[in-house]
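[stage:ingest] chain + small molecule (flavin-adenine dinucleotide)
[stage:ingest] validated
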Amino acid sequence: MKDKLVLIGNGMAGVRTLEELLKLDPDRYGITVFGAEPFGNYNRILLSPVLAGEKTLQDILLNDRDWYEENGITLRTGCEVTFIDRRRRRVVGADGSGAEYDRLLLATGSVPFVLPVPGHDLPGVVTFRDIQDVDRMLVAAGSGGRAVVIGGGLLGLEAANGLARQGMEVTVVHVLDTLMERQLDRPAAELLRRSLESRGLTFRMAARTQAIVGEERVRGVCFSDGQELAADLVVMAVGIRPNVELAQQAGLYCERGVVVNDTMQTYDPRIYAVGECVQHRSATYGLVAPLFEQAKVCANHLADLGYARYPGSVTATRLKVTGIELFSAGDYLGGEGYDELVYQDPGHGVYKKLVVKDDRLCGAVLFGDTTDASWYFQLMRETTDVDAFRDRLLFGQAHLGDSGHGGAATVAAMADDAEVCGCNGVCKGAIVRAITAKGLFTLEEVRAHTKASSSCGSCTGIVEQLLAQVLGGDYSAPEVKPLCPCTTFTHEDVRRVIRENALKSVPEVIRFLEWKTPDGCQVCRPALNYYLLCAWPGEYRDDGQSRFINERAHANIQRDGTYSVVPRIWGGVTTPAELKAIAEVAEKFQVPTVKFTGGQRIDLLGVKKEQLPAVWRDLNRAGLVSGHAYGKAVRTVKTCVGSEWCWFGTQVSTTLGIRLERLCWGAWTPHKVKLGVSGCPRNCAEATIKDFGVVGVDSGWEIHIGGNGGVKVRATDLLGRVKTMEEVLEYASAFLQLYREEARYLERTAPWIERVGLGYVRQRLVEDARGRGTLHQRFLESQQYAQIDPWAEQAAPAVAPAEFVPVVRVG
Ligand SMILES: Cc1cc2nc3c(=O)[nH]c(=O)nc-3n(C[C@H](O)[C@H](O)[C@H](O)COP(=O)(O)OP(=O)(O)OC[C@H]3O[C@@H](n4cnc5c(N)ncnc54)[C@H](O)[C@@H]3O)c2cc1C
Ligand code: SF4
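[stage:predict] done
[stage:export] tokens:
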């Protein structure tokens, strides 16, 4: 007769242990599972996408009832075990049913911590742990209203995002002054807060909840400073604690969790424990990856193989808020004795910090770009010596010098038991076996058969490389990537569909192309807004909510939260009156720093957000308009003094620079665009590292395109030579229009030209004179609507300072 195994807790860790056990020895036990919840086993980590409306309950089921039946497992759902009789080796359920065991597996998970403040038990106060909690939140969100989420950790933020997506007005209350303090350092936490604010969430930081108020139902939350916040729903997401009550009652040794050894055995040799309820070598875990490692070890011992050991886990965290890329792992704070490698690009919302000690990577925080998260995590877990490539570490695996083959080589070198998908605990060997044994060809098939890459998607690249490696020539990864994870359509598809189907708004595009998410993400929304603006000039109304914060505020946000204001200085030539006006503004608003930019503009740094409208008003009065220094737009035309003043000058570079800037300013483009005009080949205006550069020569002007400075300097390509200023202006506008219409959003001119080829651009602009003229006309037409000073409206006193909408035309 088979031995009897009883599992208490039909959750992720317990059922994973059974799955592993069935692989090793399917006939070893007669198995009974008790689950307090009324469902089969589901993927708890995907409750957040269910709350956000991105997935359904059906989507997140891991094992339905048929699976239990097929494997001969007796499943008792909705039945909480209330008693363990260790002497008789028997468990008893709340409904009086019982089951005997030879071996018992405890996997009771955690219980959410509830702040013991007055009113915590009022109707309308919920936690975020299971399907019932999600149902309660969805019902509350059905009637709109205000939600307060207490707790600015992973769960709190995912709950807040979900409720906001369901139409609630959400405030997150956090006791500290930075979010996710257990996973993020201050700069990353700050970027995260801003990103969530731009999605409509409100934050109340460093706030201590004193009571929850209401009579029959929650009405609000009171804080220790006496303030009160109205609420129709309160979500407590302030932490979890291991669910040890049953184990304690049974006399098992527990501290914070049920204490287990390296074989996942408790102090009773017949009883094992896995998951969030256990404490192993003093550590408890709240993420699935370590629990799956425990499950494997535990199964090995339940199958009487007896050799596996669990040494503890290094953990990594990702936030599942669509469109926010965030990863944190290991010792991310660093400090004395550690080296910190930091890359910051606030304009693009990218922050990367790697913490290194003794040439080993021991921590990482990534915000905005998590492409290399799995690689960093692997380096950490394998304690790889990074000395040889430390100088390129921050730039990712593709910059190791073997790019192109680097990924494939890395994947080939991975051990079979190296974990690829952390969310579902799938290792390389399992994926390779599935591809070969089941004849899989596509990413979707691998997802369906192995669950790898089907949760947060961060391992998709590795899975694709495995497909390529195993199938060789039979597999070709899609050459063109989709616009973002919300869709399978490429940038080009989307632009074409917008034009062909006369789609005129972001929601219309999302609906028409059946986006996977109801309202897009921070990658696709700005792109769609730009594509619509470009396709329907004059007709499409700019969607401020789809713009990055700098473009919404019409100023560049700085690392201390203040803004920088840069007026336009046409061609870099100014007047005493303009300088006086700028000086007066700087004095009046006590602007801490006034600085010249590399593009010959004057930057007022340290302006507070609430001061912006008044600053703009004063600058406007002196005739100054926005320099668009914050936008994906035409920025500056840098000039040298040229033949007007210079001994060497052959052409009037400042005159041309001013005309160019008057022609092009205000144009929204896929990425920032800089222009430059030098009066002779000595090139003092550095025109040959600009997107569009002009160099005066004896016979006229040389036109250069596709240059840029920055991290990766690229000198321009010569497009051709012309004789007159009028020709330069036509080429400039035609070039910009071609770039506007055909480059992908966030693609600068240099990579665009490299992608489509200089020959193509020459053919469209030089060889096809008529086509050039048409592009020039379309540019002029579009500029009629684009040359609107976004600052000017602020001069109207009736307008609320927060509404930075461009409506007044100048020039
Ligand atoms: C909203 C949310 C988002 C998350 N996101 C992530 C993420 O992005 N990444 C990540 O790694 N982790 C995430 N987690 C954590 C992850 O889900 C847990 O670590 C994991 O589910 C724990 O597995 P477990 O089996 O230990 O506990 P659980 O999955 O909670 O399973 C325990 C089960 O035992 C049942 N039970 C308890 N007591 C009894 C009893 N006496 N009798 C019968 N049944 C009982 C419970 O009802 C429950 O169904 C998230 C968790 C939540 C709630
Ligand atoms: S580029 Fe030529 S014209 Fe312009 S400042 Fe330099 S030397 Fe003079």
